[in-house]
Amino acid sequence: MFAVERREKIQEMLQQQGRVSVAELSEVFGVSDDTIRLDLKHLEEHRLLIRTHGGALPVKKVSHSTPYGQRLNLEAEEKVAIAQIAVQLVQPGDTILLEGSTTTRPMADFLPENAGLTVVTNSPGIANAVIVREGIAVILLGGKLDKDAQVAVGPIVIEQIARMRVDRAFFSTSGFLYNRGATSASIEDAFMKKAFVAAAKQRVLLVTGAKFGQEGLMLSLPLSDIDTVVCGSGATDSELNSLTENGIKVLKSEWNPSSE
């Protein structure tokens, strides 16, 4: 069997099984582990899979086609569990940035009151949720309102955040590749994230289980731009250990789908 044929078969197995191991592929194709590793490296370089310790995962493409209201209800319990961990990173007197998304939105409900916090956000929904809480100041970034995402976007927002410095920024992501970083479904979102990162002393990424292994249009936050990942289910211990080895602090919630 030629290498190109073997690599096509590996992709087929990934789609059918959802995960493959080097040992399994070596046995199936009757070649050495090193040959399989070269196959997986080649396929990853062409963004056809994601290599893991000892195997590979399929790449899943993402988009923002699901309406905001529906996304708000997707993985709702997991998002709350992640938010409850993320707010523990907030310190009294902090100025924090909450990027507008359905994953960061629950954080607004758990921020401590009367702790001298200032919340900067591009989300009218987050601003409305925070403003009713005692002792929290709100700065709402203005710009073109994205109807689907229900957040302010564009160069006006980027210009405003470029003039600010926040203690901590909390982001979500369309997809997350443990060996590359966070991805965005749009160019506009990717550039927004870059501006938010530049304004923050600490960068915290909130990742639901469904986002692991998904790849968007652009790499918006490489691993070097992420200080902490707060996540639920969806990643193996080896993948999370890989993040730790890259200097990223990992906080994992105890939520899992079987507990619902």
Kindly describe this structure.
With 260 residues, the chain is an alpha/beta fold. It has two domains: 3-58, Arc Repressor Mutant, subunit A (Orthogonal Bundle), CATH 1.10.10; 68-259, Rossmann fold, CATH 3.40.50. It has helices at 3-17, 22-29, 33-45, 68-73, 76-86, 124-131, 155-162, 187-198, 237-245, and strands spanning 20-21, 49-52, 55-58, 60-61, 95-98, 117-121, 136-140, 144-146, 151-153, 166-171, 175-177, 181-184, 200-207, 214-215, 218-222, 228-231, 249-252. The strands form five sheets. A seven-stranded parallel sheet has the order 7-6-5-10-13-16-17, with helices on both faces.
Task: Give a short overview.
By secondary structure, this protein is of the alpha/beta class.
CATH-level-2 architecture of the largest domain: 3-Layer(aba) Sandwich
**Could you tell me how far the N terminus lies from the C terminus, measured between alpha carbons in angstroms?**
46 Å
- Helix count equals 9
Order the strands across the largest sheet as they lie in space: 7-6-5-10-13-16-17
Overall geometric form: elongated
List the helices and strands in order: HEHHEEEHHEEHEEEHEEEHEEEEHE
Please indicate the percent range of residues in DSSP E strands (runs of 2 or more).
Answer: 25-35%
How is the main sheet built?
7 strands, parallel
Q: What's the gyration radius in Å? A: 20 Å
Secondary structure: helix percent: 25-40%
Write the CATH fold name of the largest domain: Rossmann fold
Mean pLDDT: 88
Total tally of structural domains: 2
